[in-house]
């Protein structure tokens, strides 16, 4: 079957392309913006990708078109699909029908940490010999890809609450029908499609409603928004997580180092408790929490916690999650996907724990629809306080004033200007944290090149 994917360079749709290719289909795709790491992954798989949405890409006519949720009516390729009556599906629906309906699905949902936690869970299962399939919204460093078909009945998926497609406004995750569900956390986000937190909670409860009775829902004991969702009705087993000494919970963890590179995990059950220590390369209390969530999910399908701890010791974080890109001339440059104030603050806190008193230079692109609308503008200044200095790119369509809400930030109006501003201030020992949920106009490599060239 020839499958053409519209919006193929998104992390989710790129994963769909990889899975369809592995299932033996002829896969092509198109997108308006083509950039790494997904473009590199698609090229390595031999998937031909077209720039833009020219209807001519649909000749000869594919057997099926999978349409990403970034596309809408008026897009020339979408109009051609409808006018020519080419069969089409959303990515989430295709995934369910073609693959997931016969799998034990382990889904990771929540506002923050989905990609990292799902990556940890996939790695734990792989190290335990489960040969899982997975689809995660980022390139997994341990696997070198974002999706894998697997060779068993187990499938790990990052379960996103964003809508499915222009013709299906339900959250994508309602298509997955998980038997093991992690609810990491819940905050207001995606203001372009949700009016408030209550609307998101309704979607999360739709997800809870389809977890079977034998299934398990794993969540933090202290997250009020999630508890409100579960109080609407929960028909599955539950496991809870908490920092040791704070709240009663089935799973508890305690940091043994300030940067969370070593922590203990205790599982409390009806027949007593068991405890292990995790020592790994990641940092940050949020990552320790993510790890325990993954351990609890793996335990639900039979993985002992000591096996999980051993696997996590070899876990490499997903690309674009506090990823160290290089240290030219003694200046460390990191890339992170953070674009919500909570994620920004959490990432900066983790970096501070790692680098101590070194100067942290935060570089932020407020790119998401929610960020552009200014929904979180009032929280942004506080989220950036851990950084010693901050630079922000003002994108087109920003509906609020950076100068008003983040007065200490140095503002630029182009990537060229931003590079010039950074090069005037950077010095050996600096820790540069670049945060964006997009390609940031190639800033990462440009900055690395400029810093490296200063001694040439």
Shape: globular
Count of the separate structural domains = 3
User: Regions with pLDDT < 50 over 5+ consecutive residues?
Assistant: none
Determine the structural class based on helices, strands and strand pairing.
alpha/beta
At the fourth level of CATH, the homologous superfamily of the largest domain is Mur-like, catalytic domain
Tell me the strand percentage band: 25-35%
Q: Give the CATH level 1 class of the largest domain.
A: Alpha Beta
Characterise this structure.
- This protein has 15 helices and 23 strands.
- With 456 residues, the chain is of the alpha/beta class.
- The chain has three domains: 2-91, NAD(P)-binding Rossmann-like Domain (Rossmann fold); 99-312, Mur-like, catalytic domain (UDP-N-acetylmuramoyl-L-alanine:D-glutamate ligase, 3-Layer(aba) Sandwich); 323-453, Mur ligase, C-terminal domain (Protein-Tyrosine Phosphatase, Chain A, Alpha-Beta Complex).
- The strands form four sheets. Strands 8-7-9-6-12-13-14-15-16-17 form a ten-stranded mixed β-sheet, sandwiched between helices. The chain has a six-stranded mixed β-sheet with strand order 18-19-23-20-21-22, with helices on both faces.
- Helix 5 packs across helix 8 (285-300) and helix 10 (341-355) packs parallel to helix 12 (377-383).
């Amino acid at each position: 079957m020839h499958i053409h994917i519209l919006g193929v360079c998104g992390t989710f749709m790129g994963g769909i392309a990889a899975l369809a290719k592995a299932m033996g289909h002829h896969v092509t795709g198109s997108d308006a913006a083509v950039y790494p790491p997904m473009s590199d992954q698609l090229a390595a798989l031999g998937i031909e990708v077209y720039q833009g949405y020219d209807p001519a890409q649909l000749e000869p006519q594919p057997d099926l078109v999978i349409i990403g949720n970034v596309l809408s009516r008026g897009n020339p390729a979408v109009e051609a699909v409808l006018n020519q009556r080419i069969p089409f599906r959303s990515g989430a629906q295709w995934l369910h029908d073609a693959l997931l309906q016969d799998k034990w699905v382990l889904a990771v949902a929540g506002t923050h940490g989905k990609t990292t936690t799902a990556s940890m869970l996939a790695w734990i299962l792989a190290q335990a010999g489960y040969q899982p399939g997975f689809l995660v919204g980022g390139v997994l460093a341990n696997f070198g890809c974002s999706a894998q078909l697997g060779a068993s009945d187990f499938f790990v998926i990052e379960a996103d609450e964003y809508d499915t497609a222009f013709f299906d406004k339900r959250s994508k995750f309602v298509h997955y029908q998980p038997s093991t569900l992690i609810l990491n956390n819940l905050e207001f986000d995606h203001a372009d499609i949700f009016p408030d937190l209550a609307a998101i909670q309704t979607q999360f409860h739709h997800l809870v409603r389809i977890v079977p009775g034998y299934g398990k829902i794993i969540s933090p004991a202290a997250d009020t928004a999630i508890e409100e969702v579960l109080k609407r009705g929960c028909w599955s087993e539950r496991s809870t997580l908490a920092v040791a000494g704070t709240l009663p919970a089935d799973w508890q963890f305690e940091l043994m180092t300030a940067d969370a590179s070593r922590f203990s995990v205790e599982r409390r059950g009806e027949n007593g408790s068991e405890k292990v220590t995790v020592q790994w390369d990641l940092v940050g209390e949020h990552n320790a929490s993510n790890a325990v969530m993954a351990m609890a999910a793996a335990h639900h399908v039979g993985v002992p916690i000591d096996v999980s701890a051993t696997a996590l010791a070899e876990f490499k974080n997903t690309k674009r999650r506090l990823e160290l890109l290089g240290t030219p001339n003694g200046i460390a440059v990191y890339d992170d996907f953070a674009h919500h104030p909570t994620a920004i603050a959490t990432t900066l806190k983790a970096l501070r724990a790692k680098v101590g008193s070194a100067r942290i230079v935060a570089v932020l692109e407020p790119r998401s629809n929610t960020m552009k609308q200014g929904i979180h503008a009032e929280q942004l200044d506080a989220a950036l306080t851990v950084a010693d200095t901050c630079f922000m790119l003002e994108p087109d369509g920003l509906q609020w004033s950076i100068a008003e809400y983040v007065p200490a930030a140095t503002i630029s109006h182009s990537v060229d200007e931003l590079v010039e501003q950074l090069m005037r201030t950077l010095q050996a020992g600096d820790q540069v944290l670049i945060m964006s949920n997009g390609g940031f106009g190639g800033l990462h490599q440009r900055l690395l090149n400029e810093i490296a060239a200063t001694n040439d």
